[in-house]
Design goal:
By secondary structure, the chain is α/β, with parallel strands linked by helices. The chain is 47% helix and 14% strand. The chain is built from 4 helices and 3 strands. The chain has helices at residues 6-19, 50-57, 61-74, 76-86; strands spanning 24-28, 40-43, 91-95. The longest helix is centred in the first third of the chain and has 14 residues, at 6-19. It is globular and about 45 Å long. It starts with 5 loop residues before the first helix and ends in a 5-residue tail after the last strand.
Length: 100
């Protein structure tokens, strides 16, 4: 759920990985996220933003988030390509929106 600490967890795990000298990548799948406490390895906002979905389709925040997730599913190759760039032997965390 929203506000449960998903992004904070990703931030702390990234910092812990750095302490252990392990590369850990975080993929942002929240189209409404604006600020990050960790470097973003891939960002859904390169594919679609909540703001764009809401304004172009006259949707509210919940409808916009659902549309963005459906858009991601329809464009799964984008995510596959982003993960391929990270590599096979890397740690990856997915930071997801809390409303979905």
């Amino acid at each position: 759920p929203a506000g449960s600490g998903k992004s904070t967890f990703c931030e702390l795990m990234h910092a812990h990985g750095e302490t252990l000298r392990r590369r850990l990548h975080v993929v942002n799948l929240d189209p409404a996220a604006e600020h990050f406490g960790y470097p973003v390895s891939a960002d859904i906002r390169e594919l679609i933003t909540l703001e764009d979905a809401m304004s172009e389709l006259n949707l509210g925040p919940n409808g916009g988030l659902i549309y963005c997730m459906e858009h991601l599913v329809d464009n799964m190759q984008w995510l596959n390509d982003e993960l391929d760039e990270i590599g096979d032997d890397e740690y990856v965390l997915l930071d997801c929106p809390g409303q979905i």
